[in-house]
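sorry for the late reply, my laptop died twice this morning and i had to redo everyting from scratch. anyway the thing you sent over, i finally got around to it. pasting the sequence first so we're on the same page, its 743 residues, then the predicted structure underneath. double check i copied it right bc i was rushing
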Amino acid sequence: MTYPISNQTRRFATVVALISLLVLHASCSSIVAQPPPVAPVTAPAQPTPWAGAAPQVALGTRIEALRLSTAFYAAPAAPFIVAPDETVIRVTLGSGTAEQAEQQLDAARAKAPESVLLVTLAGKITITGAPLSLPARTCVFFQHGALITAEPRASASALVLIKDAEMVSLSPVANPAGITLGGLDGEGFAGVGIQVVGSGKVHLDGLAIRQCGGGGLVVVGRGGERYADPVSLTRSTISDCAGGGLTVKGSAQFIALDNRIIRNGGDGLNVASDSALLANNICAGNRAGIILAGKCGTLSRNQIIANATGLRLAEGSDSALVSENAIQDNRVGAEIMGTNSTVESNRFANAQQVVIGGKGNLLQSNPGLSVDAVTTAGADYFRPPTFADAHRDEVVWKANGQPAMGRFDLTIASGPAPMTAAELTQRLLAVRTANPGKVLVARLVGQFQVTTKDGLVLPDHTCVMLDGTLSNDQAEPCDQLVNLVGKGCVSFSGGRVVSRSKVTSGLSGAQSSNTLLIDGVNIDLGTDSRVSNAADRKAVNGVSSKKHVGSFIVRGCEIRDPGSRGVWIHVTNRAHVIGNRLFGGGMTIDFDAFGNNSTALYNSVTGNTYHSGIFLEEGVKRNLLFANHLFANEKSAIGVYNHGVPQPTEHNTIACNLLADNQGADLSFGGFNKEKPAYDNYAFNNRLVRNRNAAAIIFKGNSRGNYIAQTVLVNSPKHLINYGTKPASETYTNNAGFTAPAQ
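ok and here's the structure:
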């Protein structure tokens, strides 16, 4: 059984309206049936629809007055729920008990055991001795005013139970005038609002869970090592529960977006799972706002406000990214007890700012957080002066447990004629030698020219602000224009870095060990990536991180025409590419062999010519691509592939990216052979708009176990083509897909 044509039309009309409200792309509001050819793109990419920084919240703002930032989640829409040949059975539940509701569901499923149930909740379901249990392949929709609630003396463990199931969703009926939350009211009973046990591929959207004694949502997944089998919570409110708001364990790649978790007696978000993504949530008035354990979690643009403890990176956390959050009005802002995490560009204003434990963590560029708050070992402190933040703080760097380093400011002007990079290097080194124990803060004014293969070499503990241009006009090939090799802390910000002759990299942190920031630099390597022979291209990489050790951040840069890669993440952990605009190139952000535990957030990528705009390749794992905008690229927007290494490309998360007007597939998955596959990767709520290839999603050979969920598909010729089947088909064979339909 398939959807009637009228329902398909209604679903696509709904998603077009939602996308236009989100201002996803300049032309999304005028989608046509036969789009014109893509005009050549000659200008750098524009900021993403999510461009910005940490939420701006006035101190002392009441919890009720807090407002979410621009939403990341959009209501999904696709031609089918799980497969083109699926059988769909519709069920309407009126008012009654949980037992009566389950009898209706069982009767409907008996007609077709492998069917998908579309369940409309139109009344009030009351819970007494047992929860409402939802089976696999069930989509529940709350009509306006529908409610699941407990009787006064209910003994059930939960209002809703999802046990040993998959492909289950709960969401409100679509409302063009605005989201209407589906209601679950515990009325103070002792159980949990929603309990997910031994289940995966479960998506909860637009729910209001309140007054549950045992907590709002408790998730126990099917194992912490099981990827591409996640649970998500979006656009929901969990409030006034005696227990915690949300507790998660054993569910890798858990995602929570655009939620309000407020006034709960326990912790707001307590997530002990690898590769979690928590973004744009209000966590306020709880015991702890957010507790994170597990590897490679990402927290971005949350409002963590008025809790006893704002954020706790627990002892089990490792390699987390905490970026652009508002952490304020808490008794303790953050407790950092894990390892190797990067806490950067957050706003701090708390009674006690931080408590430091663990080891290998980094506190970088956090407004409101001074070195005075870092009194114990466990974290480095780095606040580099940049063009965006030309502060005058005396302390720029304090290494783990070591005395703070003061700063030595200097200005070097080129004069009327360009100064060579070799001379500039020698001047910096001389000042470095004369001022041991100080961080150099160097403002470079004028025109500087690379005349040797080494380029400008930065010494240890050096922060450079370029007010001018560094260019390369020499005839001989150059390794890099800027070599960020110095130990300790190094930053480079501002100015233009331009190459008019052959160069391997614009800025390189390759082979170095330091804490490194590249911020607000205009990099133009002027190379046509259409040159078929790579050896004939004038440049290769805009930014290289090859074999870098330490936190490596590229933020707010414009990178144009690199020849091959805009940013190369290779044999590197903890590289974060945030809020950049990239044009041209071939693999514009390339997560290459052993480039693990890293992120690409809020970037715009356009004009890519011969390969994927963002490429996950050669056995990389636990990377996150979130809220990027890839448009008008000539090849695939995002590619997941493996060719040359025995380790699979696996366990990566691709969430809430806007992929529009691309000539190749928007999402592509494949491996060279069965020993080198691409598997167990997770694509969640990506918006695929006006794709101009044969299909928006392509599975090549040797892709398996990948999970594509809650996709927004608009005006593309086909949903997917699976070339791994012979003949090619429109199925998820060897992979999985689930898109809860709009009602």
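The first helix runs from residue 5 to 21.
thats about all i looked at so far, will dig more tmrw
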